[in-house]
Amino acid sequence: TLALPINTQGTHALLWTFEDGNGNTSTQTQIVLLKDDIAPIPDIPILPTITASCEITSLSPPTATDNCQGKITGFQTLALPINTQGTHALLWTFEDGNGNTSTQTQIVLLKDDIAPVPDNPILPTITATCEITALSPPTATDNCAGKITGFQTLALPINTQGTHALLWTFEDGNGNTSTQTQIVLLKDDIAPVPDELFLSSLTILIDTEAPRPTATDNCQQNVKVNTLDPTNFPIPGTYLIGWIFEDTHGNISEQEQDVLVLGTLTGAVNNYITPNNDGVNDYLLLKNILRFPKNSVQVFTRTGRPVYKQLNAKNHWDGHGNIEYHERVPRGIYYYIIDYYRGNTTQFVGWVYVDY
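Given the sequence above, the corresponding structure tokens read:
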């Protein structure tokens, strides 16, 4: 009564019964032994090597043929995706369900040998005047890593004048690198700017060094102040100094300054005159007045009434008035004010006695 087919592995007892048709029977037992000890046989003796650059996300399982089960699909336990560079051995296993297994190894080779490709074929030149304190790194695209940001090793800030070549490097993490050069050009062509738009006139005494003006540079450098003219004068007079401002990058600006040099002895040579044309003490002699063409001379009475005023006066006063008197002034004491350089705050006051 055991149903066919018999396909369960193990030992089975068949009970055979014999009947004679008259109600008499006898039985006999027969052992049936099913034992499959033949493992599946891979359909492809040597599995091909699987090669890729970046990763493996899916696999096509190999098959084997079993004497009992027929076609069997293999399985392996390595988790997907496979994205570690190098050689990986996949162990495929074939099970026939009867406890027989066979295995087969397949090589997976991940080898990325493609370098990142810069996104911008030619990087623009970076230009600046004084220094570069920050940079915008360029990017590249990699077949495996995607977008990659470059790096360079030149220390910031870059403040040396001239041309600098930045070498940007792109690394994909798989040992492949590419490089790209970018030019940085520092060129300061801006001259220092004088701190005073127009230098005010300078008044100094003889044998005194003229103070130097200052200027400010766009790159915050120390500005050298020089001149080709004298800055110390032994003789009173009016002079012109041409100041030269130069930064450390060779940029120059210039500025002129009027200088009034005063002697230690000023005013008139004499304080007694007799303007009677006898050739003796006819004039009030004004010391060094001809050295100061922008002078002014004023003469007042003892009570403060003006009697004489002259711009760009000569080197003497002859005792004649040009305000209240237009002839020789009366006998008496008069005061004078000499402004050697009009607009200057320093004035020299003296007195003279006019007699006849």
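Residues 160 and 186 are 7 Å apart (CA to CA). Try to locate this feature in the token string yourself.
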